[in-house]
Design brief:
45% of the residues lie in helices and 14% in strands. The chain is an alpha/beta fold. Strands 3, 4, 5, 6, 7, 8, 9, 10 and 11 form a 9-stranded parallel beta sheet that branches. A two-stranded antiparallel sheet has the order 1-2. The protein starts with 6 loop residues before the first strand and ends with a helix. The structure holds flavin mononucleotide.
């Protein structure tokens, strides 16, 4: 079976394996690492359109896409069309290769304001947001939605058609409903129904943690690409494992201890560039357990790495623990 590289509007990607936007997780260091390890399109966490239009230009610089990150999708969340259009234009000025609109966030504060998953209940408003953004920016525009508001709903199909008519270039479906949040198996039948309802590319997301999961989603739903979220945290190699499996039918082995240690150290160095050493060492403690998933002695390793007080100590300890003798 051939899994073609994905194109979104005029943007041709190297494969059909993409990163999911995740607040607090899809940070710039993570995006840079993912690009180096086979992710065809990275994604930054959602940004409030209301915040963006009120922000100072200097504050917006935090969202700038750096040279080594491209191609990257930047995502906005909100519900007021004029504000969304303005915010979209700002993110494109900051280097977004794709402008994504969040239509799936289930968080109450966002939904109450009419944004995120609430847009699934108002396809006319959602379509007007997309049409406004399409008229303003010259990069591909995508939307990321849920499989529905709750089980059995038809919102995803209705919304997908409305967005296609409004000119959206691709749709991502997190194949769980708003009420599922992040639990449960992906609803591949809903993904299939969305794919059958439109002729633009459809990207499937939800619950992929192995190359076999990716193949199941692609073949059972007919979707054009897959988006990986939580499984990539601490395992950026998942992008190249899936891409290689889709291209050759063979899965590369897991990373060696040395690769794991060096990637952990690089992640910390990239974080230091952003935050300075003192803050980065503390922030990085959140990332450490992810790098130790499934490793013998993970608990003790976590304690030692999390109590390290400097970048040099984290680096030395990581090499000792993960790549002894190298
Ligand atoms: C901590 C966290 C933050 C998230 N933030 C966003 C976000 O900013 N925008 C968005 O569209 N989805 C967000 N999501 C949803 C993910 O993009 C993705 O749809 C979801 O995790 C399902 O994919 P997975 O099962 O591969 O993790 C978030 C998910 C998590 C766990």
């Amino acid at each position: 079976m051939v899994f073609a590289p994905l194109h979104i509007g005029k943007l041709q990607l190297a494969s059909c394996v993409l990163m999911a936007p995740m607040v607090g997780l899809s940070t710039r260091p993570f995006r840079i690492l993912a690009r180096r390890h086979g992710c065809a399109l990275t994604a930054a966490e959602m940004v409030s359109s209301e915040y963006l239009v009120r922000s100072e230009p200097s504050d917006r610089e935090a969202h700038r896409v750096l040279e080594e990150e491209h191609p990257t999708a930047l995502q906005i969340v909100g519900a007021r069309p004029a504000v969304m259009v303005e915010a979209a234009a700002m993110l494109v000025d900051l280097g977004a290769d794709v402008l994504d609109v969040n239509m799936g966030c289930p968080v109450r504060r966002i939904v109450k304001g009419g944004g995120g998953a609430a847009l699934m209940k108002d396809p006319a408003l959602a379509a007007s947001i997309i049409a406004g953004i399409k008229a303003r920016v010259d990069v591909p525009v995508t939307a990321k939605m849920r499989a529905g508001w709750e089980h059995g709903g038809q919102e995803a199909i209705v919304l997908a058609r409305a967005l296609e008519d409004a000119g959206v270039d691709a749709i991502t479906v997190h194949a769980r409903t708003r009420e599922d949040r992040h639990r449960g198996a992906p609803l591949l039948c809903v993904l299939r129904a969305v794919k059958d309802a439109v002729s633009i590319p459809v990207i499937g997301n939800g619950g992929i943690s192995t190359p076999a999961d990716a193949v199941t989603m692609l073949t059972r739903s007919g979707c054009d690409g897959v988006m990986i979220g939580r499984a990539a945290v601490g395992d950026v190699w998942i992008f190249e494992r899936i891409a290689a499996f889709l291209a050759t039918g063979r899965e590369p082995g897991p990373p060696s201890g040395e690769t794991r240690a060096e990637t952990l150290c690089l992640h910390l160095r990239l974080l230091i560039e952003e935050e300075g050493e003192k803050k980065a060492v503390i922030l990085f403690r959140k990332c450490i357990p992810h790098y130790l998933k499934g490793i013998p002695g993970a608990r003790e390793a976590r304690q030692r790495l999390c109590s390290a007080g400097s970048a040099e100590e984290v680096t030395r300890t990581a090499r000792q623990l993960l790549a002894p003798g190298s």
